[in-house]
Structure formats: C-alpha cells, structure tokens
Amino acid sequence: MRAPSIVLAGGGTAGHVSPLLAIADALRAARPDADLLAVGTATGMETRLVPAAGYRLATIDRVPLPRSLSADLLRLPTRLARAVRQAGDLLDAAHADAVVGVGGYVCTPLYLAARRRRVPIVIHEANVTAGLANRVGARFAASVGTAFAQTALPHARLVGMPMSRTIADLDRSGARAAARARFGIDPDARLLAVTGGSSGAASLNRALVSALPALAAAGITVLHVTGRGKRAESAPGIPVAGSHYTQIEYVDGMADLYAAADLLVARAGAGTVNEVAAVGLPAVFVPLPHGNGEQALNARFLVDAGAALIVRDHEFTADWIGTHVPELLHDDARLAGMAAAAADLGIRDADRAMARLVLDAAGRHASASPSPSPSARSSIDAHRTPESGPDAASIDDLASGGASGGDGDGGGVTR
C-alpha cells in the first residue's frame, strides 16, 4: 500500500487551525508515512502555527465577499476562479488522495478543485450552524464529522472536537504542580484563570482588573491571559501588578492553563467548551455579546449539566465577580461536582475518529489511482501570496453572521 497524500485546508483563526493540527497529528500517528500538506492563506494564524507544528504550509488567495454592491463584488467570480486554479495546482502537485476541510477562507476553493478531480473530501464542522464553505462541501463530501450532534449537514456524524493530545489526555491533578510552577503560581493558591482567547476580550479584561481588590481580599489568586497587545495597565505604560495577580498576553500551551486553574472564565467558543469538557474544568462562560447568540447556546450543554455557569457580557462586572467568584472558589464540593459533570460530557478521541474517516477515504482513492513519483510531490510552491481587500468579509464570515472581531473566539452553538 503506497503512502497516502492528504491535503488539509483551513485557517484564519486558532479556532480553525487547532482542529486542523489535531487531525494532522492523528494522521501522522496512524500513518507515519503519510504525505501531509496544510493549505491556508498568507494572512491567517496558520502562517505561524502550522510551520511551528512541523507541517508544510501552502497558501492560496483569500476569496473575499464584499458586504455591499461594489466593484469588488463584480470581481468575485474572477477571484474565486483564480483561487480554485491555485487549489487545483496544489492538489495536482501533491497527487492528493483526500482533502480535509475544517472551515475558513481557504476551504471553498479546495472543495471545488477536489470535486473536479474526484478527490474525496472529508469535513469537520465545529458549529451547529455550519459556515457556507462546509455547507457547500458537505453536499459532495465522502464524510462529515461534527463537534455537536445537532449540526444539520449531509453525511454528518458526531465525532466531537479534534484537540491536541496534550489536552485530550490531560490529568489535571497530576499536572497541576508543574503547570503552576511554569506560571509562578503558589501550589496551594485558589486560582482563577481568565482568558478571552488569542485576541483577548476587552470587556472581560476591564471587569477583571476592577475586581482585583475584592478577589485579593478573598484570598483568590488570578492568572490573566489578556490577549496579544492587550496588556492590562494601571496607567499608560505601567502594567497592573500585585501579589495575587499574574498577567501574560498569550499562552501557547492551554493544557498548562487548564491544569493550573481551579476555575476558568472564558468566552464560549466551540473549541473552548469542548476542551473544558474533555479536561473536566469548572468554568464561567461569558459569551460574545454580538452575533446571533451562538456562543450562549454553545455552552448550554455544560450549563445544563451543572458543569459551568453562564453570564451575559454586560452582567460580567466587577460587582458580579466579587460576589460570585470567591464563593464558588471556596466551595470545594461544588467545584468537584462541576469538574465531574464536565468530564462526563467530554469527547477525547475526535482527532482519531477524523483520522480514520480520512484514511478510509484516502485508501479507497489511492487503490484506484496510479502511484505518483516522489519528485512530483516535491514541486509544491508553499509560498503563494493572497490578494484580498482589507475591508472585505469572507464568504464564511457572512455565513456565520459577520467577521469575527478581537473579543474572544467564535464557535458553534449547541451540542
């Protein structure tokens, strides 16, 4: 059996890149000989995260969909056709046996190019209300895996959310001491971890900083992930500091944050809620205030099970934090019950389930295709430059209710 060639498409945000990398890792574990190529755009987080994970990255043009009638809208067919040609060139050079799509700007051109070549498509959809790219691709996909049971797509089956094995296999109690040492946190502290995602959440940051005196008085230690470029300052150029407070802008290893925390405050993106369930971490979710309420619904399965609390953004104030968080963090029995309820709902093998679907599709395709020469697969240009307007929104953005901002990650809706 020849080594399968698999192209993985997705990117833009960590919410797309993280499951893509988890699937890639599972494919490599199952078939170390597999030829794997990730495809994204040159403006997304994949440009940093994919090479850092040890995978090749090729880029194609973004396909923007202008929000209003304009010359850019008239140019859309030409731009899409060019991106499809670029995607086709990559598939041909890779002699792809399967295309895996997780959503983002890049997927529609890859799906269309794969369909023309009869290359099987395997999709993972993180949201209940799927984005346009995955709605299009699912119509002719070989398999579709979903993070939530209610996702209405052809061929859909529940697999869960692919995540890093460092998170899926995390033993929070066993990893706690080392994780706290990494962040410089007292091993016996009552620790509240707060994060608004890789881009941060300004409203969460403001409320938390205002609540720091009350939290310190209650003996609560805070680990605050502010988001890149969103350092909390007490005055211009002066970072907020305190004996019970540690702030960092970004965490590369979320497993350490989950292991260190006794309670997490976060937005309710699909990745976050599924990771919280997998590791059994009590949480307070503060959904994004804009959109169609997707994040609030996204966290509902954990809230209904007693594993998490949910607070509307405008209600997440310093007063709310000072009133409710110390009470919760000093209630060991309640925290233990929340942790157990979360763990009971966690799905920890979605990466492997997706890898099985991909390898099955690739195997069927490879058995009907001639073996390419090794030199043919080495000809991929991995440094294409995208062309897109800075004020445009992607097709996926409009399908999911608008371009995402810098106030926490997006996500699915219900489980």
From TrEMBL:
UniProt-listed Gene3D superfamilies: Glycogen Phosphorylase B
Location of the protein in the cell: Cell membrane
Topology class, membrane: Peripheral membrane protein
GO molecular function terms listed in the Swiss-Prot or TrEMBL record: transferase activity
Enzyme Commission number(s): 2.4.1.227
Pathway membership: Cell wall biogenesis; peptidoglycan biosynthesis
Catalytic activity: di-trans,octa-cis-undecaprenyl diphospho-N-acetyl-alpha-D-muramoyl-L-alanyl-D-glutamyl-meso-2,6-diaminopimeloyl-D-alanyl-D-alanine + UDP-N-acetyl-alpha-D-glucosamine = di-trans,octa-cis-undecaprenyl diphospho-[N-acetyl-alpha-D-glucosaminyl-(1->4)]-N-acetyl-alpha-D-muramoyl-L-alanyl-D-glutamyl-meso-2,6-diaminopimeloyl-D-alanyl-D-alanine + UDP + H(+)
Chief place where the protein resides: membrane
Residues annotated as domain Glycosyl transferase family 28 C-terminal: 192-350
Binding site for UDP-N-acetyl-alpha-D-glucosamine: 13-15, 127, 198, 295
Pfam family, one: Glyco_transf_28
Superkingdom of origin: Bacteria
Region entry Disordered, spans: 364-415
Listed Low complexity bias regions: 366-379, 391-401
Residue ranges constituting the Glycosyltransferase family 28 N-terminal domain according to the UniProt record: 6-145
This protein's UniProt keywords: Cell cycle, Cell division, Cell membrane, Cell shape, Cell wall biogenesis/degradation, Glycosyltransferase, Membrane, Peptidoglycan synthesis, Transferase
UniProt feature, compositional bias: Gly residues: 402-415
Role played: Cell wall formation. Catalyzes the transfer of a GlcNAc subunit on undecaprenyl-pyrophosphoryl-MurNAc-pentapeptide (lipid intermediate I) to form undecaprenyl-pyrophosphoryl-MurNAc-(pentapeptide)GlcNAc (lipid intermediate II).
Similarity field: Belongs to the glycosyltransferase 28 family. MurG subfamily.
Name assigned to this protein: UDP-N-acetylglucosamine--N-acetylmuramyl-(pentapeptide) pyrophosphoryl-undecaprenol N-acetylglucosamine transferase
Organism the protein comes from: Tersicoccus solisilvae
Gene (UniProt): murG
